[in-house]
């Protein structure tokens, strides 16, 4: 913690000379040889922070400047400050606004009439420590995210490899076996009983070929590569309906080609988990899937009329399937919203920006 009371370089954004003098006195009372620079307008503060942001350790901000004020002022200053803590000093006695300003990225909110040298100093020390901790947390969160990204890519690559092996190796061998059985059936001296047995074996081999295709396709849906995401989801929904006998309505507008492969596989996996969850847990009678190809965005919604997800389960960090859906959405910068109730079932909404830009609602 910076308690050595030196190396404080403070930008005071304040147009009132009396208030500035008071703040200056308080700072000198607590800190050795501080550097204090005054910006009387937002324009000046902006110039200073744009050119020499790193020269400062703390910004003290008055909320009513002649050229800017209130919430819009906070937005711009916080943006300009980056990692530098911003402490709001104000005459506004609006407690609710004070709390809100903290959610806008301000480190602390102090009322001028309650200000003392000690409270100001304490706030500066705490704010700078808090900023350091937050920035360390953000870095480690980013590390975890990068790791999750790599893990997911590796997982998909491995699934593709296994799917290819299963399809090409087993698939070919079974096809070979089927041809041999057919030839055997036609060979001389094969009696009626053996022929019947061969027919049974051919049926078994056909079933195995279908299973191999099914397993390979579940590991890596070939339809994505061949016909695109919408067709692959259509297949997924058909499979879901046939296997689970739950009425499913799929609405899709124009298909979307040329979508980034990473987006496709992650959107597909999210739909896959959502439908698997409905099959396993929802006890639904109707499922609606909607795929919309908008100008800049792709929207996917999956709703069921089942028993809903309990709020505690929805927010449980151990719900790995749900967590994985959120993580995948996050990897592609998409917004994923899951809303659920026991009356109306579960609604999952995924909004993906086509240009790959991060969606505002995504973490
Ligand atoms: N559509 C749904 N309707 C009702 N309950 C659901 C639905 N989706 C999920 N749940 C509930 O949320 C829980 C967590 O889901 P999640 O997908 O994380 O785990 P899981 O499906 O139980 O296991 P996993 O996905 O890891 O195989 C489920 O156990 C279930 O209770
Ligand atoms: Mg699940």
Automatic annotation (TrEMBL):
<dbReference type="Pfam" id="PF00072">
    <property type="entry name" value="Response_reg"/>
</dbReference>
<dbReference type="Pfam" id="PF02518">
    <property type="entry name" value="HATPase_c"/>
</dbReference>
<dbReference type="InterPro" id="IPR011712">
    <property type="entry name" value="Sig_transdc_His_kin_sub3_dim/P"/>
</dbReference>
<feature type="coiled-coil region">
    <location>
        <begin position="137"/>
        <end position="165"/>
    </location>
</feature>
<keyword id="KW-0597">Phosphoprotein</keyword>
<dbReference type="GO" id="GO:0005524">
    <property type="term" value="F:ATP binding"/>
</dbReference>
<dbReference type="InterPro" id="IPR011006">
    <property type="entry name" value="CheY-like_superfamily"/>
</dbReference>
<keyword id="KW-0175">Coiled coil</keyword>
<dbReference type="GO" id="GO:0046983">
    <property type="term" value="F:protein dimerization activity"/>
</dbReference>
<dbReference type="InterPro" id="IPR001789">
    <property type="entry name" value="Sig_transdc_resp-reg_receiver"/>
</dbReference>
<keyword id="KW-0808">Transferase</keyword>
<feature type="modified residue" description="4-aspartylphosphate">
    <location>
        <position position="62"/>
    </location>
</feature>
<keyword id="KW-0547">Nucleotide-binding</keyword>
<protein>
    <recommendedName>
        <fullName>histidine kinase</fullName>
        <ecNumber>2.7.13.3</ecNumber>
    </recommendedName>
</protein>
<dbReference type="InterPro" id="IPR036890">
    <property type="entry name" value="HATPase_C_sf"/>
</dbReference>
<dbReference type="GO" id="GO:0016020">
    <property type="term" value="C:membrane"/>
</dbReference>
<dbReference type="InterPro" id="IPR050482">
    <property type="entry name" value="Sensor_HK_TwoCompSys"/>
</dbReference>
<feature type="domain" description="Response regulatory">
    <location>
        <begin position="9"/>
        <end position="127"/>
    </location>
</feature>
<keyword id="KW-0902">Two-component regulatory system</keyword>
<keyword id="KW-0067">ATP-binding</keyword>
<keyword id="KW-0418">Kinase</keyword>
<dbReference type="GO" id="GO:0000155">
    <property type="term" value="F:phosphorelay sensor kinase activity"/>
</dbReference>
<dbReference type="Pfam" id="PF07730">
    <property type="entry name" value="HisKA_3"/>
</dbReference>
<dbReference type="InterPro" id="IPR003594">
    <property type="entry name" value="HATPase_dom"/>
</dbReference>
């Amino acid at each position: 913690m910076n308690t050595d009371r030196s190396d404080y370089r403070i930008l005071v954004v304040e147009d009132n000379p009396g208030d500035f003098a008071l703040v200056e006195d308080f700072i000198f009372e607590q800190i050795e040889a501080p550097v204090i620079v005054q910006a009387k307008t937002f324009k000046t503060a902006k110039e200073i922070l744009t050119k020499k942001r790193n020269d400062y350790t703390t910004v003290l901000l008055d909320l009513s400047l002649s050229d800017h004020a209130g919430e819009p002022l906070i937005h711009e200053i916080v943006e300009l400050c980056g990692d530098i803590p911003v402490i709001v000093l104000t005459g506004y006695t609006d407690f609710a606004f004070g709390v809100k300003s903290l959610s806008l990225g301000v480190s602390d909110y102090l009322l001028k009439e309650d200000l003392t040298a000690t409270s100001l100093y304490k706030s500066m020390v705490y704010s700078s420590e808090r900023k350091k901790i937050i920035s360390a947390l953000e870095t480690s969160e980013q590390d975890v995210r990068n790791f999750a990204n790599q893990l997911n890519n590796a997982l998909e690559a491995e699934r593709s490899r296994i799917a290819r092996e299963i399809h090409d190796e087993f698939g070919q061998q079974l096809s070979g076996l089927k041809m041999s059985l057919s030839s055997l059936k036609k060979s001389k001296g094969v009696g009626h009983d053996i022929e019947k047995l061969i027919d049974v074996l051919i049926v078994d081999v056909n079933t195995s070929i279908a299973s191999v295709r099914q397993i390979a396709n579940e590991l890596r849906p070939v339809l994505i590569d061949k016909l695109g995401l919408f067709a692959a989801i259509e297949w997924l929904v058909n499979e879901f309906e046939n296997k689970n006998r739950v009425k499913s309505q799929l609405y899709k507008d124009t298909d979307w080609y040329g979508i980034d492969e990473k987006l496709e596989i992650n959107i597909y996996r999210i739909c896959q988990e959502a439908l698997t969850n409905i099959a396993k847990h929802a006890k639904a009678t109707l499922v609606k899937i909607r795929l919309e190809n908008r100008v800049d965005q792709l929207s996917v919604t999956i709703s069921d009329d089942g028993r809903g997800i309990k709020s505690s389960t929805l927010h449980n960090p151990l719900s790995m399937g749900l967590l994985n859906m959120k993580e995948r959405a996050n990897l592609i910068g998409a917004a994923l919203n899951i809303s659920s109730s026991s009356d109306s079932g579960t609604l999952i909404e995924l909004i993906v920006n086509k240009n790959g830009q991060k969606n505002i609602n995504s973490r």
